[in-house]
Queue: 2 jobs
Job 1
Amino acid sequence: MTRTGKCLCGAVTFTAEPFGTSQACHCDMCRTWGGGPYMAVPCETASFEGPVQRYRSSDFAERGFCGTCGTHLFFHMLGGERHGIPIGIFDDQSDLPFKGEIYIDEKPDFYAFEGERKCLTGAEFEARFR
Amino acid sequence: MKQTGQCLCGAVRFSFRQPTKNLQVCHCGQCRRWTGGGPLFGVRVEDVEILGEDQIGRFQASEHGERCFCKICGTTLFWRMQGKSVAYLCPGVLDDDGGMTVTEEIFVDCRASWMPPWEGASQSTEANEIAKLEAFLADQGRNQ
């Protein structure tokens, strides 16, 4: 089902269709980018309007943010349609179950989530793409 | 001795005094939307010197505070009261983020379901934080 969302200042709005479940990424790049884990749900057919800035953070992916307020908007693997969109910018954040954690081997000790869920190390996660 | 840090792309670099390795965690609705999930982690730093100041985007989400990010890569950098040298720097930009401990949680009534309280950290509600802010702003007004 298509959902709507916006950044903190409202300059960027989007529609996107989440599928699957939300997951947290603890990798060093995500935590450098946001100061903590990147909490996102994979989405099909994401469409953004407004002052979206893109940063090519590796040779295979880009990260999007609002040029006005800096809210993080997406992680996007180049060449595909799918976007990993932070759950916190959806207007309706219900029914986006948080089921996984990746790059668990890069998580610092100063935080941990409530409950247990499937956790993958960086090597285990990357093996899925080989 | 001053500590150092930088954003993901390196366009913004910092040096600062970091009195402690204590982290503040903010669960407020603005922080949770800004970071995309939240909470916002911040370490209190002083005497911040910035290289690449013109690459910093500043968003005034309220009358008293500003949220700062790198305009090139979008790294969430810090939150501070406008015009103050004290800032809460996101731990991701620190060159040395080892040994950090969460000691203070604010806006705890806006906490996400997946984020349990930190054992031993002080707990402050939204109402308490707003009362503290109003007292601070009133005090500033008297001193002007």
Job 2
Amino acid sequence: MSISVIGVSHRTAPIEIRERLAWTDAEVPEVAARARDAGGSGAVVLSTCNRTEVYLCDAGPDAVAALWDLADARLGTPAEPYGYMRQDRDAVRHLYRVAAGLDSMILGESQIQGQVRRAWELTRPSAGPVLSRLFQLALRVGGLVRSRTTLGAGAASVPSASVELARKIFGALGGRQALVLGTGEVAELALACLTGDGVKTALVAHRNRERGAELAARLGGQAIGYDAAWSRFAEVDIVVCSTAAPHAVVRAHAVAPFVARRDGRPLCILDIAVPRDVDPDVGRLENVFLYDIDDLQGVVAGTLGSRQREIPEAERIISREVEFFWEWYRGRGVVTTIRALRERMESVRRDQVARTIRRLEHLGPEDRERVEHLSRALMNKFLHGLTVRLRGAAGNGNETQLADAVHYLFDLDVAGDATDAQGSE
Amino acid sequence: MAAVPLSGLARRSAPRRLTLATATTAVAAHFAALVVYAAVYRQLPFTGLAPTLSSFAFLVGLLALAMLWLTGEGALVLMAAPLVVCPLAIGLLAGFGAPPSAGAPQGGWFLLHVVASLVGIAFLGVAFVAAALYLAQHRELKVRRFGVIFQFVPPLEQLDRLNHLALLAGFPSLTLGIALALAFGAVAGGAPAASAAHLVWGFLAWAVLAAIAAARMLGWLRGRKAALASVGGFAAVSVAFLVLQAVTASGARFL
């Protein structure tokens, strides 16, 4: 009886290795089925850009070796030096930490929660009852950590910092209008985050008209030239700047008359270009909030700092939940043993009663029923103390030795029991 | 009520339920205390300095609780707490003894006048809370400081809307309170049943609220300017009250 996880992650393997070991959604169910068939009662595969992990239930060394062989074949070189393996409580803790975002590249990021859910859904047929329960609980623990700590609060990347700043000015961003000046990879990501929050790209200004039209078609909105852009500072709510200009293109004297027409409405300018696109004097205009890349990175640093402070509390929650799961898991093993023992005893009782009644043919139905009742009562009396002690053992850590002893002494069928237990879930 | 912000500040992750529960308990306890006062002295807590200030503090607490329910923003309660605690402290200093019975106005009109006026002033207090938070957040955003205030205080536009709504709600209420006082004065033979200081303060509060609310409605004031006007207006009303209370030496009477 064991739970284990083997895998590679951003902590142990560089991107070149991780990308070759990442399985697509289409491949994941088959890999999980193969992992389970290699030995064990369940397997779940979690494959993201930052980690590829296989969770196994009741897997022996052969199953683990088979999985490393599979990884070796895919990588072309031995994968084990880049990987890790955790067992039992450590494996459960690992999954809980992953689901809570504690093991993520960006501490506390929430995307992993969806990825854990997806992994479980994709591999549900091969997950088995234990891993199914474990993954459901991991999702619950992830949610618990996020709700009871601020591990998931704030912006942890430059694009999300853009959204957070805009939200602190406008509140809800739905229906706000954005003007995009130039373009760049980070600016596009920031814009994607903003539009994801309901911001509408109204205008795209670019020095190159064709490129501007292409961007406007992709991002939505209308393409305009730089000269026409300044007057729009009176209308839009958010300006995202990311041109390749070697100097500031947005000057205070050019936009000040239009900003003055805003009637006190705030204007958020996100200057993501290096060198900066916006003259710092623009930020001194009334109701203009100007942020450059350093400010956005400052927001990110602040967020990560406060997230770091939440780690001890998150770890406390996880430790408690690991113990809850482990108690259930250990108890589940004892239940299997008790059930197997009762079935064995019941089988013996039935055989012996049948044999006895064959020899006592003169007994009437009532007497036969009495014999039947007596045998059942005796069996229950004999098993009661044993059952109570076995259940008690699940609470003090002796359950494995005692269960093994019972299996040995009463010659119980382990494989059959495991199957029964699965069927009962 | 003073403990309400602490429940939100002790841990930034403190569940909203805890803040709500603390605030609800505080407001309920305050209400119970007012009911007990009314039962003991057989008079509503609208006569005398301490009971009136306590009733005002209760209304501010109630509005803060309503804002907390609606917005979930603990910062609003944090800023509202001094507006609850300070009047209560002044009331306690003045003493919650037996209310002055001689010459104290009675009747339905008086009750309506006091409730409408206190609600109007309480809304002005809420507008002040929103405005003060607006100015704090505005400063953080301008100087690009992303610390506790940035994280804890609600967004600018939300605070601006709250300020606007509080002014719009407070103006008709205070106007009704003043109008009732004037109407009763006219019916009672042209002599208002209040001191000159009471009248001066009442008209000053109404004029301040009317001016800011009108400027907001006409679009002359918005954002930072509206916040400055609200803070200035509420400060003027508060200082005028304290000065008049001290100068007239009205003791346990409300002006």
